Amino acid sequence: MSAAVPAAMGATASAAQAHPLLHGRITPTLLRLAVPNMVALSMSVLVAVAETYYVGRLGTVALAAMALVFPFAMLTQMMSNGAMGSGVSSAISRALGAGDAEHASALALHALVIGAVAGLLYSLLFVACGATFYGWLGGRGAVLEAATGFGTVLFSGAILVWLCNTLASVMRGTGNMRLPSIVVFCASLVQIVVGGSLGLGLGPLPRWGMPGVALGNLVAMALAVAALLAYLRWGQQRLRLSWRRSRLQWPVFRDILRVGALACLSPVQTALTALLLTGMVARLGPQALAGYGIGQRLEFLLIPLAFGVGMAAVPMVGMAMGAGQVERARRVAWTGSAVVTALLGLLGLVVCLWPWLWSGLFAHDAAVQAYADLYLRIVGPVFGLFGLGLVLYFASLGAGRVWPPLLAGTLRLALVAGGGTWLTAGGKGSIEMLYGLVALGMAAYGLGTAWGVKRSRWHKD
Q1: Using CA atoms, how far apart are residues 386 and 340, in angstroms rounded to an integer?
Q2: How many CB atoms lie within 10 A of CB 7?
Q3: Whole-angstrom Cα distance, residue 39 to residue 31?
């Protein structure tokens, strides 16, 4: 028996070393993994466009209300998918890279517990305190009432969002990008159809307004959770999900949380930055807030585009680190960041030159569109640098090195908080200066993250 154990361990390690993520050419492998993510996540762009269109049909008050709720909704996605989700993918991929499939399976089960608990806490917080948060951002009267109704329905199902993204992250950690992408794609279609039908009262369905749009999200997430859980339980062999054979253990939780929990600070920084700016713009009136919300929505939609490449980089970097291939891990990080910098830089140039291509989809008020167009002209040129920072953030999670992007996010938040306070306190807070502060913060985040990753040392734990 003593001879059989080392032989089995050697066979497992050999299988890990033969994994294509460890030996395939970096750029083709990264793009092969990224394309399904980008196709699926592009559907989140379509969902956002559709929802903004639905809400735009409900009037300027509804648009302003969505601008108050949207940063918190994106925070849910960024924490569960990009931060904690990447912590899950990173831990699983590093375990598989080291040839420890049993530990990878234990990590998957512990990840589901983390997702369920985090989702419940998120629901409790935002259902109970949502109106207070929207009021802090400047919501008043009809705008606050609309935001509260929308947010209550949306955040009541936060556990579904957390579980969906956790399950998808488990699968991505094994190198399987296709199935999660298919599920996300289909769920997005369901969300568009159900949310639009209930929001606008299409056909025989009741017109529930903004709560109906939110309900479409809950229905889609519930179906996605069921599909992903069924596949992990019965449709694949890389990870064994068996509650009877596993016990919850703190060291396994710690392996996920030491990256994922710390990484959750990054989306909190991003959302807090957006919330501070939203509060500053809200003082200029509902039209300014609605226009800013349209422009800001595109900024947040850049994050899913960068997620497509970033989430592909996580298992590639993680497996390379687990196998001791540190130099390959760093090459993956810089290759992915170069791709996204070029992609988002081009998009930023387009909306800078022709902002009405985006703003014209939603604004039915000339003043609202003018505010949105100004945002895109000022902020669009730095979209590429923002993408640079986002992909390096994901790569850092894959390597288990979270501090460089966190420090860059802190710099961005400090610039916005300090600069915004100075502008508003001195009565100099024009919309042009506030938008310029947005651009400065995004550039600082991208360049700061790149500098930190270049200076940091990566090594196998």
Answers
A1: 9
A2: 10
A3: 12
Residue 4 in any domain: the answer is no
Within-domain flag for 6: no
Q: Among candidates 131, 127, 85, 125, which has minimal Cα distance to 108? A: 85
| Distance of alpha carbon 136 from alpha carbon 184, whole angstroms | 33
Q: Is there a domain that residue 349 lies in?
A: yes
| CA dist., res. 153 & res. 65, Å (int) | 14
pLDDT digits (tens, 9 = 90+) for 143-173: 899 999 999 999 999 999 999 999 999 999 9
- Domain-located, residue 3: no
> pLDDT tens for residues 10-52?
444 444 455 678 887 899 999 999 988 888 877 877 887 788 8
Structure tokens at 254: 């710690």
User: Residue 329 contacts by C-beta under 8 Å, 6 or more apart in sequence?
Assistant: 316, 317, 320, 321, 395, 398, 399, 458
Domains held by the chain: number = 1
Place of tokens 């807090």: 272
Closest CA to 63 of 192, 189, 209, 198: 209
Task: Note down the domain range covering 347.
Answer: 25-455
d(CA 81, CA 75): 10
CA angle 188, 262, 281 (to 5 degrees): 60
